[in-house]
Fold this protein.
Amino acid sequence: MYTVQLVHAEETHRSPSGGSDVNLADIIQAECPSLAKGAVFRQSPLVPGSHAQTIYAFLGYYVYYAHGLLWPKFTREVFRLADGGNVALDWALCDNHTKRPIVTILSGVTGTSDDFYVRKCYKKLIAINYSVVVIHSRGCGGSRLSTPLPFHCGFTDDYREVVTNIRKRLPHCLLLGLSFSLGANIMTKYVGEEGENCPLVAAISVGNPYDMYKVIRHLDSQFFSLGKVYDIAILNFLKTAFKRDQKLILSAPADFDVSRISKSSTIFEFTEEMTRKAFGYKSAKDLLDDSSCHRVLENIRIPMLFLNSLDDPICLQPFIPYNMFMKNPYLVLGLTDHGGHIGYMGNTWPSSWIEHPVSQFLQSMVAHYGAPIKN
């Protein structure tokens, strides 16, 4: 089967501008052809299987990294946080007087504005005259830590501070969210924490892990399969980030053991030895459980689309909290049979699919839920 499946409550949230008979599910059916009844996603025969889809998209990073060096598309802003930390913001199609909708993007754990899927969506969004800002985690995207505090998989404070600042600087702009993988967990958790007060008009989550403890335990258990590649890649990224700013991180009043951190052989061990101590958690499991966005899905009060592939080798199908999507009228889950982890390479000659549902959904949400902002 190649049909895109939608899961949502029997009665979804009604549009404030479309009349009492128009709801979120109706809007998707009418205005999002990549998601509507009969929509399909067929993986490219040249990129068959979940691992091929995942790795193909990952390798696309290097193409866009080289391309970005020669033809930069983003304007970088180093945003200073209230605690003295900083995050790198990469802006596109934006100035201090813009009134365009602004799409805030959070990428994966190793993600940057050069990620294949980020660039594909960015290109589509600026083509419809939307501004884009990619928000990197502390110490990521070519930036360095300026305080001992790093980042973790459920840390929403920095994204919250950046969004609040953008809202103040550009009060006439509608704000939207687009997130991938680990960034999807962080953005979803933020939206749930904000509830009725969320400043975003709508948001999209792609490849969401939902339960960080289960996902990391799954990755760490892949000893004799291709899935171990992802575990090793993420662990090496975390260790490299720690080593780069080791002196600053170790200046925090925490009981770090550098030897044990360096010898960590799994993501869970690294979280136990470094991350949970940096953030004051009693254990790695406590941090991961507290970071998981599935706990706050019921509190979301803006239209939010979730896209997951049933063959995702990282964020497994059993981890998807289907019951939450059938209860909360603001949520819609879109499922494809194939696509790997944010691969979604379709057609005979591989081409990206993900930017199509992303742009269609955001445009329809702006039209139906994005009432003009008044000062």
Summary: The chain has a mean pLDDT of 92. The longest helix spans residues 50-70.
